Amino acid sequence: MAWQILISILFLLIIRADGGPLAYGLCQSGCNALAVACYAAAGSTFGTVTAGLGTPAAILACNVGGDADGSFRDGLLDADIVNVLGQLFAEMPDFTWTSPERCEVLRSFTWLMASLCRGMQSPMLEKVDAAFDFFPQVLLGTTDAEMLSNATWGLCYLLQGAEEDSEGCRRAVRILTAGFQGEEVPTPHPLLQQVVRCMRMVGDWRCPLPSAALRLAGMLVHLSDSSFTDALLAAGLLGALHADLVDSYAPVQVRRDAAWVLANVAAGSLAQAQSLAEQPGLVEALCDQGPTEVRQECTWAILNLLKHGPDMFVRMGVHRVVCILTNALQADTEPALQRSAMEHLELLMQKLQTPEAGGLVGKLQGLCHSSDGAILQKARFLLQNFFPWQGMPDDDMSNNLSRSG
In which region does residue 181 sit, left (phi positive, over 0), alpha (psi from -120 to 50) or beta (all else)? Predict the structure, then answer.
């Protein structure tokens, strides 16, 4: 009940507050109650530790809630921080706020809520259950980038706390049905549309939104229930991922994460892979590659598309596919990607009488000296069966000749 009060009053303040100086005297008792609970959870006494004159108790609570090992966080939850927050917010309609003051307090409490949900050891779900309702309302109720980012990370922490895929699916359903109890969930889903909008804000590298939104989308796509990917696609996921991937001003990590999500979409159902392949310009963007970290994830996306059958080879163009697979055999590529690329090369060359092999033979010859036995054997197999003698490394040729003699 306390969190229902918190949620409703939080956004009532955003919508209804009419400005004026912060009524510090009116809120002092509520803030003191919050601070006492925070310091008690940390094993200290309120009043013996200071953080600067006028520092809001909410900021202190955020610092306690964000500890590394979760002990302070669990102390806050055990000290019934939820009810304390509810009591504080119950008094807030009587306060007079300026917009900056209101925004600062709400940012602090959204950050605190996210901190209460994170940690190497996830909190007990019943202690933070109300966060499943709180974070979606933040995402749909504000345009403040910091609050949006913290709320999105909070949802990531809730999903991350699931120990099994089935539990992750249940938590995702809980998130996407928040606010729709007894009602049909609309398509496209408004929460996922907001997540997709947050992905597109990559022009300023300092903006915290794309990283959080990409992480949340990636976690949903990675779940075994394909309906979450379908819901994201309906919300415009592919267009946002395409924009992130080709944005030269975006951090490399953002572009890499976008390619990673695309690789997971490509590994989904045939219909999902076809949606990706049919998105205007997206396959071309994946083929353009980029920095090493981005290139490898783009290549995984292409390989996952190819797993859906020969039609994908034709759709993307055989010459383009051969070039991508050849590039995937470079020395700095991860072994799993090299193995997958060679498997697709074998399939492709079985269908072609004269495979185009510009640079391919040299890379296969180099892989014949790989320390990975599977890669070495596959490279030799391809050379012997599709480029006989022409493609055998010199040492292998001499060994064969000596044995025949």
Answer: beta
153's CB contacts (< 8 A; 6+ apart) are 114, 118, 212, 215
pLDDT (tens digit, 0 to 9) for every residue of the chain, 405 residues total? 444 444 444 444 433 444 333 333 333 344 444 445 444 544 444 444 443 333 444 554 555 555 666 777 787 788 777 666 666 666 666 777 777 877 787 788 788 888 888 877 888 888 888 889 889 988 998 889 899 999 999 999 999 999 999 999 999 999 999 988 777 888 999 999 999 999 987 555 567 788 999 999 999 999 999 999 999 999 999 999 999 999 888 889 999 999 999 999 999 999 999 999 999 999 999 988 678 889 999 999 999 999 998 888 888 888 888 888 888 888 778 899 999 999 988 888 887 655 555 678 888 888 888 888 899 999 899 888 888 766 555 555 444 433 333
The single residue listed with the structure tokens 């102390």 is 75
| Closest listed residue to residue 131, CA positions, set 161, 102, 105 | 161
Give, in order, the Cα–Cα distances in Å from 185 to each of 176, 190, 232, 260. Answer: 8, 9, 13, 28
Residue with tokens 């306390």: 2
Burial class of residue 242, CB neighbours in 10 A (0-12, 13-18, 19+): buried
